């Protein structure tokens, strides 16, 4: 694995690197003649990596492939920050499952969510399994996946309908769906274990950084206004607490536990740092179902959320240079 001694000398001490104290402008224009080749970095993941929504920037790929990578998503932010050290290959894709990362081709949906929205470029050709972008020369892999394997988007479709039918009372979504959540979490863990094994086989010398999910539901669900589409629409406060405690936090734990079994992998926690920036907080890093005035966001990180993710992922990536 390349070591970049010349570039590291420019950045100062290893302690400064680990703390993230040196900002990207310090090496943005530096091009030492003796510098080694860049680290090869592959970014894998679902919509929480790709960006997808307008609040996470503009789609930059022409022609579009339907994966909806945006220019303010965290891989692209890091690429601008650390482009002198890492060469990025970003194959993240909205709606990807863990299997789509590992070995299953994906048919991207773009922004085609009928009857809510129609994408004029839909349907899109299948894209290969994301792991095919990884190879023996890959030095760093970042991967953020698991929510679609869990079926979180399905819950976001079902819970508002059930909450609306109940008039905002009780836990109708929990009552209907809770029995199936343990099996879903078990599948996440099994699929994640297999994915990490495949990535390690394809890139035996790479460091794998598994990126968790941010805080989406606040600790105090009374912050969330029933019926507000800029938040969670008609999901009841009781169901929001259930989604937080029994679905989303266990999802992060399943990813962290799986990562902990792999010597070459590390878990990046975004949950604690975003705890006061949920969908229902004034300073939100995750949008609700819509972003005003009329943009569909369907509970995804905005540019501020991606900036926070970039800060944490950058620190971990710089630590791989030691």
Structure commentary:
Keywords: Disulfide bond, Signal. InterPro entries: SEST-like (IPR037460), SGNH_hydro (IPR013830), SGNH_hydro_sf (IPR036514), TAT_signal (IPR006311). GO terms for molecular function: triacylglycerol lipase activity. Pfam families: Lipase_GDSL_2. Residues 43-307 form the SGNH hydrolase-type esterase domain. There is one protein chain. 38% of the residues lie in helices and 9% in strands. Residues 1-35 have low confidence and may be disordered. The N and C termini lie close together (11 Å). The chain is an alpha/beta fold. Helix 5 crosses helix 12 (303-319) and helix 10 (181-202) runs parallel beside helix 11 (237-260). Strand 6 and strand 7 form a beta hairpin. A five-stranded parallel β-sheet has the order 2-1-3-4-5, with helices on both faces. It has helices at residues 5-11, 14-19, 25-28, 47-50, 74-82, 98-102, 147-150, 152-165, 172-177, 181-202, 237-260, 303-319; strands at 39-45, 86-90, 140-144, 207-211, 265-268, 290-291, 295-296. It contains twelve helices and seven strands. It has one domain: Rossmann fold, CATH 3.40.50.
Q: What gross morphology would you assign?
A: globular
Task: Give the helix proportion (percent range).
Answer: 25-40%
Strand line-up of the largest beta sheet = 2-1-3-4-5
Strand segment count: 7
Largest sheet: 5 strands, parallel
Domain count, please report it. 1
Oligomer: single chain
Q: CATH top level?
A: Alpha Beta
Please tell me the CATH architecture by its name: 3-Layer(aba) Sandwich
CATH fold description: Rossmann fold
CATH superfamily: SGNH hydrolase
Q: Kindly state the mean pLDDT as a whole number?
A: 90
Rg, nearest Å: 20 Å
If helices are DSSP runs of H or I spanning 4 or more residues, what is the number of helices? 12
Strand residue percentage: 5-15%
- Give the distance, in angstroms, between the N- and C-terminal Cα atoms: 11 Å
Low-confidence stretches: 1-35
| Alpha-beta content class | alpha/beta
SSE string, helix = H, strand = E?
Answer: HHHEHHEHEHHHHEHEEEH
GO molecular function, one term: triacylglycerol lipase activity
Domain SGNH hydrolase-type esterase: 43-307
Active site: 47, 300
Disulfide bonds: 67-93, 159-173, 224-280
């Amino acid at each position: 694995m390349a070591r970049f001694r010349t570039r590291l000398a420019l950045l100062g001490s290893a302690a400064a690197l680990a703390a993230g104290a040196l900002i990207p402008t310090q090496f943005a224009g530096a091009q030492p003649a003796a510098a080694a080749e860049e680290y090869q970095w592959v970014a894998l993941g679902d919509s929480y990596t790709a960006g997808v929504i307008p609040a996470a920037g503009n789609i930059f790929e022409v022609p579009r492939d339907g994966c909806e990578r945006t220019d303010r998503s965290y891989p692209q932010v890091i690429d601008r920050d650390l482009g002198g050290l890492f060469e990025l290959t970003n194959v993240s894709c909205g709606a990807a499952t863990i299997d789509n990362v590992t070995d299953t081709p994906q048919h991207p949906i773009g922004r085609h969510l009928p009857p809510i929205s129609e994408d004029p470029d839909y349907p899109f050709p299948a894209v290969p399994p994301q792991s095919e972008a990884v190879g023996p020369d890959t030095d760093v892999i970042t991967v953020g996946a698991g929510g679609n394997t869990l079926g979180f988007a399905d819950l976001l479709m079902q819970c508002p309908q059930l909450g609306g039918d109940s008039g905002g009372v009780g836990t109708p979504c929990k009552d209907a769906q809770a029995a199936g959540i343990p099996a879903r979490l078990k599948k996440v863990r099994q699929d994640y274990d297999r994915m990490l094994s495949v990535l390690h086989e394809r890139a035996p010398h790479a460091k794998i950084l598994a990126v968790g999910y941010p805080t989406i539901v606040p600790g105090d669900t009374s912050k969330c206004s029933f019926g507000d589409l800029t938040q969670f629409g008609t999901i009841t406060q009781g169901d929001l607490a259930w989604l937080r405690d029994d679905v989303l936090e266990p999802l992060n734990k399943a990813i962290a536990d799986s990562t902990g079994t792999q010597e070459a992998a590390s878990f990046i926690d975004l949950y604690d740092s975003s705890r006061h920036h949920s969908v229902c907080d004034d300073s939100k890093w995750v949008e609700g179902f819509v972003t005003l005035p009329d943009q569909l966001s369907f509970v995804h990180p905005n540019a501020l959320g991606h900036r926070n993710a970039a800060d944490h992922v950058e620190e971990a990536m710089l630590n791989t240079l030691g």
